[in-house]
Write a structure and sequence with these properties.
12 helices; 44% helix; single chain; Rossmann fold; eight-stranded mixed β-sheet; 8 strands
């Protein structure tokens, strides 16, 4: 395992593949760590230099001092790329990771050669929604709302037919440090890249699971329409985390997008 001190906190990171390959960086969703990308990475590892990390307050990374801002999460990702001397990367972010990816382009565009915005949007939810979730977790813990979250994360087929996998992903969610989860809820609540979306000038692919209950396909399509030249692809048989349910489809879209745009 690899740990780096960046922006004054310790982040759990992973750097896979030769440094001379095109860099592909993954940023995770709320309540997960970088293991959600395992089956995608396995399909792409021979083509890219892959960088993964647990964002602050998640996985094995330090919590620091929540609540967080998207700017802090963005600063961590920028510092990680600087740490590894990556001058430009294809950045794939899912959910809040997609907000972080958009923020990275807005603040350090030279670091971003292309964007893959997976199950995310220019703005996710309302202040009321996030404040309600924060209050519920403060009262009863993450476990108290876990079932509702899992319904948004996964397709009905997985929820009905694979209780073993569902139990494993529930464990990842409920073992997320509460302070880190709530700190990132505040960051999502306060983030809005509506204006910045129109200024994105790198190739951009938006991906969404057909059964995504958190950032539905229509919202992701709306985000793609804000970004010049972006396109949107819907993945059947997946909810909010198609990297888990349909990794082959996600990997194929990434490979095709990279090839079409000379990104790897």
């Amino acid at each position: 395992m690899d740990f780096r001190t960046l922006n004054g906190i310790v982040l759990h990171v992973q750097d896979l593949g030769p440094a001379d390959r095109p860099a592909l960086v993954f940023s995770n969703s709320l309540g997960t760590d970088f293991r959600i990308w395992d089956d995608v990475v396995a399909r792409l590892a021979e083509r890219f230099r892959i960088v993964l990390y647990d964002k602050r307050g998640h996985g094995l990374s330090e919590i620091d001092k929540p609540p967080y801002s998207i700017a802090e999460h963005v600063g961590d990702l920028a510092a990680l790329l600087d740490e590894f001397a990556i001058e430009s990367a294809l950045v794939c972010g899912i959910s809040v990771g997609g907000l972080i990816a958009q923020g990275l382009y807005a603040s350090r565009p030279e670091l971003v050669s292309g964007l893959i915005l997976c199950d995310t949007a220019h703005k996710i939810g309302t202040a009321e929604l996030w404040n309600t979730r924060i209050a519920a977790i403060e009262k009863g813990g993450i476990a108290s709302i876990a079932e509702a979250i899992l319904e948004r994360w996964f397709s009905r087929a997985l929820r009905d037919n694979d209780p073993t996998a569902l139990a494993g992903w529930r464990a990842m969610l409920t073992r997320t440090p509460q302070a880190g989860y709530l700190g990132t809820c505040a960051a999502i609540r306060d983030a809005d890249f509506t204006d910045e979306a129109a200024r994105i000038a790198v190739p951009t692919l938006c991906i969404v699971g057909a059964e995504d209950g958190a950032t539905p396909p229509e919202l992701v399509r709306q985000t793609a329409e804000l970004i010049p030249g972006a396109r949107c692809e819907v993945i059947a048989g997946a909810g909010h985390l198609p990297c888990i349910e349909q990794p082959a489809a996600v990997a194929a879209l990434i490979e095709a997008f990279a090839s079409e745009n000379g990104l790897g």
